[in-house]
Amino acid sequence: MTPKQYTLELAKRGYRVYPLVPNTKQPLKGQSYLTASNDEQEVTNWFDVHGNINVGLDLAWSWLIVVDIDNHAGTSIRETILKLAEYGYNLPAETYIEQTPSGGLHFFYTGTVPVKRITNFIPNVDLLADFTVIAPSSINGDAYRSITDQYNYTKIRPAPLWLIQAMQERKPVYTDKANNKPITSKNWTGKKLDEIVTGTNAGDRNNWLTRQIGWLVRTGADPKTVYTIAQQINRDYISPPLPDSEVNTIFKSIIRREVQKYDR
Fold this sequence. Notes:
By secondary structure, the protein is of the alpha+beta class. It has 3 domains: 3-58, no CATH class; 64-182, no CATH class; 188-263. The protein is 38% helix and 20% strand. The chain has 8 helices and 16 strands. A hairpin with a 2-residue loop joins strand 6 and strand 7 (125-128). Helix 6 (205-218) runs antiparallel to helix 7, helix 6 (205-218) crosses helix 8 (244-263) and helix 7 (223-237) crosses helix 8 (244-263). The radius of gyration is 18 Å and the shape is globular.
């Protein structure tokens, strides 16, 4: 099955996908997970016009969650899975799983309630609920690939309860087992603010700003406040800054999406 055929098959099943620049995780100009589509003609046009593109998946639309495990800092995938289990977070392996070009793993699960992405849940583990790059995309010749049934999303199993609770409640992960108390550490909001100030560069500007604006909107802040902060983030922490028109497009898309999500 070619990348085009596989992506069309996902669209036929109702999954929303969006096009990425070949060999990257960056959306094509004017595209993002907020503009993802399951329209077969639109998907066909992406491949016909741009060639063998990479593909991203809108997780939120399909109530999907991905546990993203990397093998950074000399830590193996197995060690990280055991560390999750040590904290009581057992990861069901009987589900659809993809291997990333870097050797990491994406465990796919279904959810039933809206949840939010958590970066660095524990070292080398991100919990994704908005978007992800999927097979058969490739980076520098190395492909995302299924390590279970060949690209069979029907094998995706329900998320374990701890995963849903963790993404809803954002409780501390690390605990002092002897006293059963959270170890003092930076909370999620602190990490998020650090992420914003760290900023990003040209390779991931759209996705990165989309995440930040999405988070700001979900805090419940007034839209005018969110827009003002979004402009400052773009100006001060993105190099080079996105055009104002692009910031406006992202902001409006997120506002529309949040309204639609809870109207369904």
